[in-house]
């Protein structure tokens, strides 16, 4: 995606360092501009290689319920990695639910179906992708489109020949959502 990005100083949302809103003039869409200091998490060449592998993996993930990852590059001068992702108008699901006093059970079911479709895609992917940190802080919401997407895949486990991993069950996710929402039936 060769484009000029107008970086605005408005932080958007996110569980780690917040992204900035940017505008992709080539595509004509708002995007999220994320910057991460390489020194914050890279202590060895192996960790750098793992980072590059994860970025490559993120670029291959294409699903309606997975955050779109557009491009990335390394800013060697400032020792940052920059990556550009899809922008979400309502931010994270936790922020969105704070705006709501009550949530109808049908809406929660709709969100859960979308999350499950995203998880099915990740778990069917080759190599298998397990999120490992699925919660309301890394599920993103496009409120007007009634769409949620799984994001914050930086902590994923990439498993080539093993199905064993530490992961959060859907039951655990629903329990965390229940404590976040007042659900009406």
UniProtKB/TrEMBL annotation:
A GO molecular function held by the record: protein serine/threonine kinase activity
PROSITE patterns tied to this protein: PROTEIN_KINASE_DOM (PS50011)
Keyword terms: ATP-binding, Kinase, Nucleotide-binding, Serine/threonine-protein kinase, Transferase
Catalytic activity: L-seryl-[protein] + ATP = O-phospho-L-seryl-[protein] + ADP + H(+); L-threonyl-[protein] + ATP = O-phospho-L-threonyl-[protein] + ADP + H(+)
One Pfam family per UniProt: Pkinase
Superkingdom of origin: Eukaryota
Matching InterPro entries: Kinase-like_dom_sf (IPR011009), Prot_kinase_dom (IPR000719), WNK_Ser-Thr_kinase (IPR050588)
E.C. code: 2.7.11.1
Enzyme class: transferase
Domain named Protein kinase: residues: 5-185
Annotated PANTHER family: SERINE/THREONINE-PROTEIN KINASE WNK WITH NO LYSINE -RELATED (PTHR13902)
Official protein name in the record: non-specific serine/threonine protein kinase
Protein source organism: Acer yangbiense
């Amino acid at each position: 995606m060769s484009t000029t990005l107008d970086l605005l100083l408005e932080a958007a949302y996110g569980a780690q360092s917040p992204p900035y809103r940017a505008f992709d003039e080539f595509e004509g869409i708002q995007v999220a501009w994320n910057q991460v200091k390489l020194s914050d998490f890279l202590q060895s060449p192996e960790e750098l290689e793992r980072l590059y592998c994860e970025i490559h993996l993120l670029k291959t993930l294409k699903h309606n319920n997975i955050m779109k990852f557009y491009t990335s590059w390394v800013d060697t001068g400032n020792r940052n990695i920059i990556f550009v992702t899809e922008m979400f108008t309502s931010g994270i699901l936790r922020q969105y639910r704070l705006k709501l006093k009550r949530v109808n059970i049908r809406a929660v079911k709709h969100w859960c179906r979308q999350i499950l479709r995203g998880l099915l895609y990740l778990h069917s992917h080759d190599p298998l992708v397990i999120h490992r940190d699925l919660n309301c802080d890394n599920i993103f919401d496009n409120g007007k489109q009634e769409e949620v997407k799984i994001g914050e895949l930086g902590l994923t486990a990439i498993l080539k020949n093993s199905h064993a991993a530490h992961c959060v069950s859907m039951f655990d996710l629903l329990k965390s959502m229940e404590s976040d929402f007042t659900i009406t039936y």
